[in-house]
Amino acid sequence: MLKAFYETPSRQKIARHRRVRCTSRSFKPWRSFVNSRDPDSAESLYRMTIGYPSPDLSAVKMIQTLFFGKQPRPFVGEPGSSMAAFYTNHGRFKEAEAIYRERLAQQSLNTEERLSAMTQLVGFLSAHGDKAGAIALQEQLITLRGEQPMTTPELRDRLAQERYVLANLKVDAGQSDDARTLLASDLQQAEAQHGRNSPEYGEALNYFFENSFYAKDLDLAEKLAREEIERAEASDASERVGLVAAIFRLSDVLREQGKIGESDDLRKRGIDMNRAAFPQAPSTAQFAVAEKLVAEGKPREAVWLARQISESPAQSDRQDEQFGFHHLAQSLASEQKADAAEVASIALSAGERRMKDSPRLVRHLTDWANFYRGMLGQKDRAGDLLTRAEAIVRACCGIVSLEMQPVLQERAWLEDSIAGPAASIPYLEQMRTLQISLYGARSQAVEQTNRELAKANARLGR
Questions:
Q1: What phi and psi values does residue 19 have, to the nearest 5 degrees?
Q2: Which ranges of 260-358 does DSSP label H, i.e. alpha helix?
Q3: What is the rounded distance in angstroms from the CA atom of residue 73 to the CA atom of residue 61?
Q4: Are residues 287 and 266 in the same domain?
Q5: Final residue of a structural domain among 242, 257, 277
Q6: Which residue has the higher pLDDT, 26 or 156?
């Protein structure tokens, strides 16, 4: 949608600059329909953008963001998806579905674009009650994916993941037996083609366990979890699921079965193994000294020590060290916000040096966005970090990926803190659709997001 406005003559020169100040005049058409709360005008403006390609904002840096009262900002992205999101947010599901289907019917799509359009429509249908339609379309998607050359392990894994998604859709539709048959067949095929000690067999076993646990088939889930432990303990196994992770999985299954004592024993075993495998980092003691300096009223010395930790060549991006930066910044935030912000900046710089533009950096940026928003009240800075995180996800993993979930969650919280619950709802809706694609409609993640949506709507009196 941005592209429609930036291509007007009065804005061509502005759009060429890398830094663009978004003034109220630049977004006057948006402001007119948002302030007037006129859905018809909003729809007309969205329709004006249909036919434009997705906006390329790579050369645009937002240095000032405007909000219009308590209204959410317009959706920015591929024009058709923007229109569909608008319809979905206003309960006009048939019209949203028509846009997704029109996109899928376009003859100009290449294979990856068609697969992406199918994935979007599957997620939409599953989220809005057409489970049979979602299953049928996912089966078509698997057929199309299977026709592509499986030249790399990553491409083979994509096909396996699509079959796992289909199995979860079948569980949602009350077809758990079919889901079990599907993934049991995949496991047998992986064993026949690659052997029980192969990564392919481990992948299939992992998907079979996840689906069984999702379907609450706990006896089968326990059997599969115990097999994962056996594989992880075998010295010659090429294992996807590590031993500690497998132990925790079995512990979760046993707890669901009511075997609390055995579950707790396994969990303690896993925790002890983790502690033995990952001894305390040298920085842990340094952070303890820094926090003692804060307690003694010496915040500047604590900040200086944090900088020394970040610049030490012996340090890494280990989670305990990132936790140390967070904990130190939190200890400063109540009375020394400027010092807390400096520690946050130090940690961000260190993380970006060590992680580059990798998926791990996404979580790093998102966590610090949460800190800037919640502890420091620096919402513009939080927004900048989330924009950076989203760009990394789009480049490395795509919008339908696990890495996008924390970005959408934090964006929803940020928008709520700035403009109220109405502004958070579009991001919660996007997150729910993503979670359905990743985990299935009956997953705990989707249930939690549904609760957040219900609370947001209740605050709006809906």
A1: -120, 120
A2: 260-277, 282-295, 299-311, 319-333, 337-355
A3: 17
A4: no
A5: 277
A6: 156
User: For 354-402, what is each residue's pLDDT tens digit?
Assistant: 777 778 888 889 999 999 999 999 999 999 999 999 999 888 888 888 8
Does residue 131 lie in a domain region? no
332 Cβ neighbours under 8 A, 6+ residues apart: 294, 299, 302, 303, 339, 340, 343
Contact yes or no for 416/101 (Cβ under 8 A): no
Q: What is the crossing angle of helices 111-127 and 131-146, to 10°? A: 160
Its pTM stands at 0.55
* Cβ atoms of 266 and 254 closer than 8 Å: yes
φ, ψ dihedrals at 187, nearest 5°: -65, -45
What is the extent of the structural domain holding 184?
Answer: 149-277
Indicate whether 6 pLDDT > 60.
no
Query: What is the per-residue burial (b if ≥16 Cβ within 10 Å, else e) of 117-132?
Result: bbbbbbbbbbbbebbe
List the structure tokens of 397. 């993993």
Do the beta carbons of residue 68 and residue 31 sit within 8 Å?
yes
Percent of the chain with pLDDT over 70: 79
For the chain, the residue count is 462
CA 197 to chain CA mean position, Å: 31
Phi, psi of 20 (to 5 degrees): -120, 125
3-state secondary structure of 145: helix
